[in-house]
Amino acid sequence: MKIAISGTYSTGKTTLTEALALATGVQRTQARTMREILPDAVPGKTLEQCNVYELMNLGLSRLSERVVNEERAGEHYFSDGSCLHEWVYGAARLQTGINPADGNLLLALKRLIGMPFAATHIGYMKAFGDVVKRHAKNTYTHFVHLPVEFDLVADGHRPVSESFRKLSNDLLLSTLQELQIPYIEAGGDLSTRIHTITDHFGIPLKMDPELAIELAVKKVKAEAIEIENHRLAVLNTQQA
Asked: Taking the complete model, does pTM exceed 0.85, yes or no?
């Protein structure tokens, strides 16, 4: 089974997939975050500063990495996110405005300035969407969608708003329905989510879920610190 753990920003995908992998012995697969890819793909810029073409660069870079990691994982895995997420991020930013945190007036001005290029941007994003939809349909056996239940993580690295998060969530769900990929929703705390998923798919537990959760939380926090330290080191090198 190739199960993608789906959901928009700050829904707990990474911690859940790590805990599931520990609790069941089924490996997890993922791609680096855009924040990790950014220094190599678009040096010297933040995600908020990226234009449509740079967002495509990031999305395609992440997609290629994800596909390679999925192939290496074999026939059974939990995917932290899915190939759809790379496209949904860009498509939602194109729809809401290139920086979702901008105010309404600034968004309107940016849309006005970008009108001559809108058709081209939409065409590129549609082609991207067609590619990831085919891959999702041919690759994942099931999706587990995590609803929006938690507040956005205020880490300064998520150029999104609640309206953007809702749009992304709705786009993910409508795409799953369009592709007719089987999915379930798993809400509640981590323990409830683990039991919902393992019970539904009949996956035996090999570790106490509470211990798996404790270890997963520690690992994800440590990885986040390492990612940020690496980002700062690369940024300092580029500015030197």
From this structure: no
